[in-house]
Design brief:
The chain has 8 helices and 7 strands. It is α/β, with parallel strands linked by helices.
């Protein structure tokens, strides 16, 4: 067994499954996608401290109950790891970044991954992508103190929005999912609370995501 394959196998069996990640499509995605493939470009720049851990990523994806026909918007990605995982679970993934270097890296990684389902976009994060809405799911890949209603309005009926809410001056984070029940009402559920170390010192991104 190749080393990278063994690492992915160990991640699933030693980390994901023991911590309650059972969705077969998510498990399959983690078996197929190597995180190192997409994080090596940013390994020596500012993004080294901005990577959500594998377990938090898996928890986020499982909480959304993503279907094969879904369209997903990811806000704030610095690499293609989460979009690549999602490409095994849904129909279309739109990625939004507000950083030109990230946009360049994401497009380069997307070409190397050869997945037509992933589309890279540049623009302000807080506005989402209104022109391509609605989305079945929206993922904010970072911590936020506030979500604008205009972003919620881009979610389909029964669609979900997921994000990390900082607690105790960013010492810990609450993983929150909101589900749209009708045009005005959302049901909010706390999935888990994460110590700061689980997010690899994510504070730099939080300042950037202060909607």
């Amino acid at each position: 067994m190749r080393e990278t394959t063994l690492v992915r196998f160990n991640i699933v069996n030693s980390l994901l499954t023991p911590n309650g990640v059972f969705d077969p499509r998510i498990i399959h995605a983690f078996q197929e996608v190597s995180r190192e493939t997409f994080t090596k470009i940013s390994a020596h720049d500012r993004h080294e401290q901005e990577l959500i851990t594998v377990l938090v990523t898996a928890k986020m994806l499982q909480a959304l109950s993503i279907r094969p026909q879904d369209r997903v918007l990811i806000i704030g990605s610095t690499n293609l790891f989460m979009p690549a995982l999602l490409s095994f679970c849904c129909k279309e993934i739109l990625v939004l970044t507000n950083n030109k270097q990230d946009e360049k890296n994401l497009k380069q990684q997307s070409q190397e991954f050869c997945c037509n389902a992933i589309k890279i976009n540049y623009g302000p994060l807080q506005s989402g992508l209104k022109h391509a809405a609605p989305y079945n799911n929206i993922i904010v890949e970072g911590g936020v103190n506030y979500i604008d209603q205009s972003l919620r309005n881009q979610i389909t009926l029964m669609g979900k929005l997921i994000y990390l809410y900082p607690l105790d001056n960013y010492i810990s984070y609450r993983l929150i999912v909101e589900q749209r029940m009708d045009t005005e009402n959302f049901v909010t559920k706390v999935i888990t609370e994460c110590p700061g170390f689980m997010l690899s010192a994510f504070n730099n991104t939080i300042a950037e995501f202060n909607f």
